[in-house]
Amino acid sequence: MIMGLPLHPLVVHFAVVLVPLAFVALLAVAAVKRWRERYAHLALVLTVAAALFAVIARFSGGQLASMAGGVPSGHAFWGNLLMYAALATAALALLWFFMIRKEKDAPANTVLGWLSVAAAGVAMVMTMLAGHTGAESVWGTLNTAANNGEATATEAPAATADAPASSADAPSAAAGAAVSLTMDEVASHNTAESCYAVVEGTVYDLTDWIAKHPGGAGAIEKLCGTDATEAFGGVHGGNEKAEHALEQFAVGTLAK
């Protein structure tokens, strides 16, 4: 955590920027000999830095996943491949520049240089795929929740017009929020069939959200029956859209 924020969303931006820059730099010094002589060290620094931040992003992502109760499998898959591709690129680039200093015009150096470029290209593709799946897991979750909330609000008047329900038969979300539950009561709703969780003193029924969660059902199931304040804050803390989407699932408050 840095200043209350998870490390992963911060360092991942360095990898997203440095990996493509390393690819461009390696391509330039491999293609133009005079640039190789002047800018080889800059390309090497960018490549090693890209690999370093890819590794940090990978392991900080694992920590964030443990806080959030899971990680989308696609994002984890591409994130792992990105780390390996970035490390392979750095290893090839280091070997290439060592060989250049030893014997500038050796034919093997040309092959090694273009292998470094190819590895950097693969790493850049992995960066795009990891970034896409990561963004999809976050914004897809929020958009789906927001759309569900809009649909509920749109359908509610029609339902009450056809068959008005009394507050005793079908309490509204506002009425439900007045219900007070103990932590023991929340803990008893710890399955996918009945999933309650607490976030900042409010109790939410996440049962219907489990199957719809873009990040995978497991991420929500791990929160069932628990105080999920830290897990929710670690992923969506300070995000008003996420907090608004969560409100539709409120069923009560936590008894003190």
UniProtKB/TrEMBL annotation:
It comes from the Bacteria. GO terms for molecular function: heme binding; metal ion binding. Keywords: Heme, Iron, Membrane, Metal-binding, Transmembrane, Transmembrane helix. GO terms for cellular component: membrane. InterPro entries: Cyt_B5-like_heme/steroid-bd, Cyt_B5-like_heme/steroid_sf, Cytochrome_b5, DUF2231_TM. Residues 178-255 form the Cytochrome b5 heme-binding domain. The keyword Iron applies. The chain crosses the membrane at residues 12-32, 39-61, 81-99, 111-131. The keyword Iron applies. Signal peptide: none annotated. Belongs to the cytochrome b5 family. This is Cytochrome b5 domain-containing protein. It comes from Schaalia canis.
